[in-house]
Amino acid sequence: MSLLDLCRLLVNPDEGSRNLCTGEYEYGAGYNYNVTLWVSALFAALFGLLSIAHLIQGIRGRKWFMLGTVTICAIAECLGWAGRTWSAVSTEWRQQLGGYWTSNDTAFLMQIAVLIFAPAFLAAGWYIMLGQLIGLLGPQYCRFNRVTYAVCFVIGDVCSLVVQAVGGGLAAAADTRAGADRGAKIMVAGVIIQMVVMILYSILLAETVTRFISKRPVKPFRFRKTREMVPVPDGTVSPQAIRKAKILIGAMVFSTILIFIRSIYRTIELLEGWTGPIISNEMLFCVLDGLMVFLAVLVLNIFHPAQLLPARPKSAVTPSHSQSDVEKAPPAQPVEQPMSHQSSRTLAAAPEAAK
Asked: What is the pTM of this model?
């Protein structure tokens, strides 16, 4: 009788003990630990509350882009942590094969797939907010059209999202540990793409803010003569609007730093494979993934663009004249037309005819 056949016959009624065949604690699902129920349920509830709050704030403030970005991120996080809660609830001890823990495989795949790409929607919200901030502070302080900024960054974000989704799908469909590890490496590539886009966004945000504070516009380019690139004259933006914009920028920077920390953690975690020491530590996952994303979404609840991102002031009619200047300009005076030679002779002959 082989060792494998002997292991199949071993029954271990001692719940939570080491496996009689391997001498290690064994887990049937993809986790290397038993998911803590109250932690997962707490995060699911918190993200659910953030989802509702963002939904209400986005509709009331008419910031529709927030519904398709940050709100979706919060909903996806809620679903991911609900999947972990499902895993915790379905955890049970199997006495066969020397004794091991198992939980629902679908719940594991659900949380892996959703939690890895949820922050990509949050990042898309930052990029759109950057474009609106450029329109408020003045497009003369950025290098490109504000719409170009938003579109390019969102496209990069979508690319990272697709790569992460493909990696997650391959990992979920893999029948072997090697196949799952290949899927994890593809997921890492998606996370790295997201980090590169975030770094570029951070650099451009810092440059725009620095130029606005120092009043150093970018030198004009030949392709900057568009309606979106009409400069905002100095003094047009009120001090209150500038103060609110600074608060929003601070919230965006704080949120970005948190997601960057989370991305570094997930990169190292997935590079080690599904059995590495980092991915096997539930506390690290809860703090460096769950808590980071929660705070990154929460700060945009507290400092929501609906309250801090006013509409752009009315654009100038020309780069050097405001609408009010045009309205105050005196009406044009009629221009006298010079008389022709024939008309002057007729007028001169009129007194003679009257006699």
From this structure: 0.79
